[in-house]
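Intended use. Records like the one below are meant for learning the mapping from a protein sequence to its folded structure. Do not use them to infer anything beyond what is encoded.
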Amino acid sequence: MEHLDVIVVGAGVSGVTAARLLSKAGKRVVVLEARDRVGGRLHSVRADGRTTDMGGSWIHGTTDSAVAAAAEAFGMRAVEFTVGSYQPDSRPIAYYGPDGSRLGAAAAQRFADDIRAVDESLLQAVADSQPDDSYRDVTEVALAAQGWDAERTQRVREFLEHRSEEQYGAWIEDLAAHGLDDDTVDGDEVVFPDGYDVLPRRLAEGLDVRLEHAVSRVHWHERGVTVTTDRGEFAAAAAVVTVPVGVLQSDDFEIDPPLPAEVARPLSRLRMNAFEKVFLRFTSKFWEDDVYAVRQQGPESVWWHSWYDLTALHGEPTLLTFAAGPAAVETRTWTDEQIAESVMVQLRRLYGDGIPDPSHIAVSRWQDDPWAHGAYAYMMRGSVTEDHDAIATPIGGVLHLAGEATWTDDPATVTAAMHSGHRAAERVLGREIPIYALWQ
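Structure written out for the chain above:
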């Protein structure tokens, strides 16, 4: 059995962040990763001269961002593409009404103003909510406060449903009332045309990363930890476990003794979502040149409601949409071609039957990924925002959980993953480390 100072489980951004900082501090560290690559849920697929981020894509706000600073230090080429927490305007958006015709500028602005009015009421509704209230419950309170007619109310209700799905991949009635409390963006948002996985690959340089080492058991005790993989056992004085919530909750991953109640309870109130990316590439562009997104309203928008123009990023006409929440669940067993056909029904409704079929289709499959069980975690009804940090409570002085779901300020992001790995490294060392030590 190999003996080390620290074992890090998982080579996503959180894992390689912790390992890099610990290694720089002089610790003997090994990173155990079940996949055949580093990056975790940052997965950049390179084929046919294209680079497609099937997992995380964005830095959601570059202002005072450690991730943005690291990306700049590593020379990662970035392109501004601000989606702004499912924003109703601010960027050029082509809205199509329930009848399939495009809204004029004045009508689109009235709709955006309605959303802002509801959001203002929503702040108090969330503050007054009960522990078991859902996001549906609080949005209905905010909608009722407006005194609108049924049609006007329904259009904004749809938007709020879609925001829940697109931001957290959860149906609005399953998401906690506080589930979008963190839904803020400071500064521009950027994407990486050469692939976001450059970040974890650079962070992992020089580390002892053991790929294709699937961990099945973490045994912790007063003297340290023993980690069991399909390629043998490893022992260390401490461990940092960065696997996703879906793996922590699966029967294939055991922590022994079981997690203490102060960690297990908040963990039980999180769930992995159903959220898949759908990329459609075309030989020619049929949508407007002056928009960055297309959205439709009404009953036809239940599944496919928003398309984002990635043409500038990919160098060929490309639309990105999301199968999120119920849509992701229902289409889980569909082929890529069946999903694309369903999406194209809605695009042809807006742009006519003469538009071309996509020349290339790519669909993520995070729900079926055994090392994730979903794209990222969301807060179920009954959870509170502090649950994220509570999951990272040190266990027995030797075991630390980290990852995007363990950081309260901005969960479900690469930023959260990096900061959680930084925090875990500081706790193992028992002292503060500047986060910029990652890239300096």
